[in-house]
Input
Amino acid sequence: MLDIKRIRENPEEVKAKLKTRNADYDAYVDEIIAIDAERRKISTDVDSLKAQQNKVSKQIPMMKKNGEDTTAVMAEMKELSEKIKADDVKVSELEEKQKMLLLSIPNIPSDTTPVGKDDSENVEIRRWGEPTKFDFEPKAHWDIGKDLDILDPETASKVTGARFHFYKKLGAKLERAIISYFLDTHTENGYTEILPPYMVNRASMTGTGQLPKFEQDAYKLVNAEDNKDTDYFLIPTAEVPVTNYHRDDILSAEQLPIKYCAYSACFRAEAGSAGRDTRGLIRQHQFNKVELVKFTTPESSWDELESLTKDAERVLQGLGLPYRVVALSTGDIGFSSAKTYDIEVWMPSYNRYVEISSCSNFVDYQARRANIKYRPAAGEKPQLVHTLNGSGVAVGRTVAAILENYQQADGSVIIPEALRRFMGVDKIEK
RNA sequence: GGAGAAAUACCCAAGUGGUGAAGGGGCUCCCCUGCUAAGGGAGUAGGGCUGGAAACGGUCGCGAGGGUUCAAAUCCCUCUUUCUCCGCCA
Output
């Protein structure tokens, strides 16, 4: 959520910056400003009526004590009370309307986010490693998975539906090994491990920005018995439960930065991506991910974004997977983000780099939605924290990248050194 | 899922319709004391919205949301959470 004061005081600046997202929010901004002015006017008026009401209410018991007749005063007060009630309704309607509009406006991109209309104008920041070269015809991970009998989408489509997978044998173990390796690396690096619930309520989904605008992308849970909405959603990412862990909290300055890493399954409806990445592990309705989440002071959040991105890169380096880091352009960054770096791993079957992590600074946008504050010093007023998160990293895509980048001419797959202690083998073969 | 009890500040806790939401602990400051302990005094309800250049005001906050009333921590309704017990269950 943007600061209403910023919109009120610099509407043109807000409009111009939002336009860089390749979308037009002018009408929203204008409506918010109009509603805000009306809301404040009625609210101040009704507040002074309440002040009068409170004053007289204190006098009534005194008058009664002195044996005075209060009938006339009470009749007067009844009228006042009715006026207050009616105006209160108006104020809360306007507040509700204003809030819905504010929740529907995305974050303002940071000044360091490259301006561009879409992903074609993203900017490569750095590369690590070289795209893998083969002296044989490399296979795609879905074929490797089938040949080694470790991935089984066909049975998953019988048991569940399209875009689900069974992992088998060393494939299942590889997924588990990667999760352990990621979590161990991040906890050794100062992150606190969290295992969150996979279902969250509406307030949490709103707090991180998935709702109200993107309800069609989420899985909403319905009670089978009466078919009624439970108000629970399957999490699209651990970012939601982990960020909302501190919803409505006032943290102390000494606690910051707070750094969490969390493994979770993630559930995405993938509305609007029919026909894309239909084979393999790249785009699934359910996938595993280790997420990094930080709560920081406003002063440090930009440095923390750089270190967060490097912390995510660390695990790819540990696995020896070639990747590059890309700064997303204003037209490509997510709704709540002020700046995002994507980490893209080399995927031989795509013959290009494919997103495996997305690291963002949300500045105070999520913190304002989720009401997460900190007290800079004892006695000082609480301020909004800055929140950041990044995948550290997507597990299924890591499996795909390992299978493809470590495949051998004989059809086997070498296990990266870092995973061997979790796998117990150094190779997957027929 | 069923029955009962509870939710007030950093903590404990009083408060069954009416003029400032008691009291204690803790914390902060002051006095006393050579220092410490003990003792005495004062302060300590967060946070939002809002008016104002500021000083300083107004308003809403007793788990949440509604309702009754001139007036609600207090009465009524719905919900949430916690505790005790029963049922079911990995």
